[in-house]
């Protein structure tokens, strides 16, 4: 009988994604990315351009991470070497996107300190914190995915 747990060199499927590194990071990425999405959507969107980028990144990464999670959970990855490389590339792009969105969101939040309502300011501060946490999670996932990819 096969075990659902996997070593660093294997790509898990099914319940194994909830017990292996770096795949266990999917759920925190979804949670913190969703929180960024919700908090930015709740605030007054001024200026539109940086906040629009933050919304795009948070929604894009949330949807793509959820799809990626489903692919791994359903066992849709057959050529393990190329899927490991794709996992590394996706999480590297997501980490870069989240870093750029986090910096833009922090800049907008600092600029709106005096000019907006205190409630919007607090929501944006929370969004900045969660955005940097999501960036860190995606960055850690990228490093661990690179290690797994290189072990193939």
From TrEMBL:
Boundaries of every MARVEL domain copy: 17-150
GO function terms (MF aspect): structural constituent of myelin sheath
Transmembrane regions listed in the UniProt entry: 30-47, 53-76, 88-105, 125-147
GO terms of biological process kind: myelination
Location(s) in or outside the cell: Membrane
Recorded topology in the membrane: Multi-pass membrane protein
Pfam families to which the protein is assigned, alphabetical: MARVEL
Keyword Membrane: yes
Keywords assigned: Membrane, Transmembrane, Transmembrane helix
Gene Ontology annotations for the cellular component aspect, listed alphabetically: membrane
InterPro entries associated with the record: MAL, Marvel, MARVEL-CKLF_proteins
Protein name according to UniProt: MARVEL domain-containing protein
Source organism of this protein record: Amphiprion ocellaris
Organismal lineage: Eukaryota, Metazoa, Chordata, Craniata, Vertebrata
């Amino acid at each position: 009988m096969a075990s659902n747990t996997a070593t660093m060199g294997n790509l898990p499927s099914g319940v194994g994604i909830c017990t292996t590194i770096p795949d266990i990071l999917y759920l925190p990425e979804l949670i913190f990315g969703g929180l960024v999405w919700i908090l930015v959507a709740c605030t007054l969107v001024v200026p539109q351009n940086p906040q629009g980028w933050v919304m795009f990144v948070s929604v894009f990464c949330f949807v793509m991470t959820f799809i990626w999670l489903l692919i791994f959970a359903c066992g849709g990855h057959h050529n393990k070497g190329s899927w490991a490389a794709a996992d590394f590339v996706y999480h590297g792009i997501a980490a870069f996107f989240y870093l750029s969105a986090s910096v833009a969101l922090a800049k907008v939040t600092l600029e709106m300190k005096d000019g907006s309502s205190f409630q919007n300011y607090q929501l944006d501060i929370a969004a900045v914190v969660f955005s940097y946490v999501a960036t860190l999670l995606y960055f850690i996932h990228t490093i661990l995915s690179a290690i797994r990819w290189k072990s193939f």
